[in-house]
Amino acid sequence: MDSHHTPVLLNESLEYLVTDKSGIYFDGTLGFGGHSEEILKLLDPGASLVATDIDIDAFNFSKKKFNEEKRMNIYNFNFSQIGIISKIESISGFTGIFVDLGVSSFQLDNPSSGFTYREKAKLDLRMDKEKAINAADIVNSFSEKDIANILYEFGEEKNSRKIARKIVEKRAIRKIETTEDLKNIIAQITPERFLTKTLSRVFQALRIYVNDELGVLKTFLTDSVSLLKKGGRMVVLSYHSLEDRIVKEAFKYETLDCICPKEFPVCQCEKERRLKILTKKPVLPSENEVGLNYRARSAKLRAAERI
Ligand SMILES: C[S@@+](CC[C@H](N)C(=O)[O-])C[C@H]1O[C@@H](n2cnc3c(N)ncnc32)[C@H](O)[C@@H]1O
Fold first, then answer.
1. Mutation test of ligand 1: which of 6, 41, 60, 104 has the most ligand atoms closer than 8 Å to its C-beta?
2. How many whole angstroms separate alpha carbon 219 and alpha carbon 222?
3. 165-216 tens-digit pLDDT
4. Is 207 touching ligand 1 by the criterion CB < 6 Å?
């Protein structure tokens, strides 16, 4: 299996993340190991890297790729389980925590993983195939209103109601089973020139819902701050505005030392300031990187340090 995945904002990620060559690091989205491989090159023999990926193909690929690497332990867990992983590893604090959100180019390009609408595949979109609900369940059994809300909330799709209505109309005639079935339904009500972007938004919305990507990210961000050593760094790469907003707000919340209502004369909240933001504005890929790797075009890097 060839990964075809080029790591995004690689040098920038390493610069923010690696502050101690003998430290303990966490890569929550191991994928095909693009970032992990380069992190390891910067680390001393006594350092360690704990990495995880929820996708079984990515996990198996990387397990094999890093088979000889003594400094690394690899899991097939959700990154929101960073607390459990650190307990298993007896780690009380990480020097650096990294996530590169979303799906890999391999997942997007490979019809058998069911993430692509460019090829006919089973309409699934689960990263973890043990999860109960897949994308076909949503379009075949959710109410028109719920489908519209999912498309609007997680895909920022303006025609969400029109698309949901068509889905419900068509599923009454025949079950929607494949990516192509859904694509054909959307194509019937979308002008050709808007089709690709509409499909991207619809598939993104279903994928985010099926995998609870935003909920998982929020849990992860809160728990991982507690697991950073003082001076330790967190680096997050996101690929759409919904994720980036969550990262930005979570970081900002962690810089506050009081969340009491303004009218309180004295602070009563005991809120602790835990982070210093290192990237006032998100770091974006250079034109050169986007030219070489189209997937990098929407990437945003945010970094913060535990104080
Ligand atoms: C953009 S890719 C990472 C690519 C990797 N940095 C590289 O350069 O090879 C994102 C990976 O994160 C995984 N992933 C997404 N959400 C996850 C989650 N909640 N927990 C663990 N892995 C997740 C996906 O399966 C995918 O392999």
1. 104
2. 5
3. 999 999 999 999 999 999 999 999 999 999 999 999 999 999 999 999 999 9
4. no
Rounded CA separation 85/220 (Å): 12
Q: Transcribe 57-102 into DSSP letters.
A: HHHHHHHHHTTT-TTEEEE-S-GGGHHHHHHHTT-S-EEEEEEE-S
Strands, E assignment, the chain:
24-27, 48-52, 72-75, 94-100, 228-238, 275-277, 300-306
How many C-beta atoms lie closer than 10 Å to residue 208's C-beta? 23
Phi, psi for residue 88 in degrees, rounded to 5: -60, -40
Which atom from ligand 1 is nearest to the alpha carbon of 78? 20
How many helices (H) does the chain have, and how many strands (E)? 13, 7
Confidence band for 298, pLDDT divided at 50, 70 and 90: very high
Q: How confident is the model at residue 115 (pLDDT cuts 50, 70, 90)?
A: confident
Closest ligand 1 atom to residue 27 Cα is: 6
Is residue 54 lining ligand 1, measured as CB closer than 6 Å? yes
Mean pLDDT of 274-283: 97
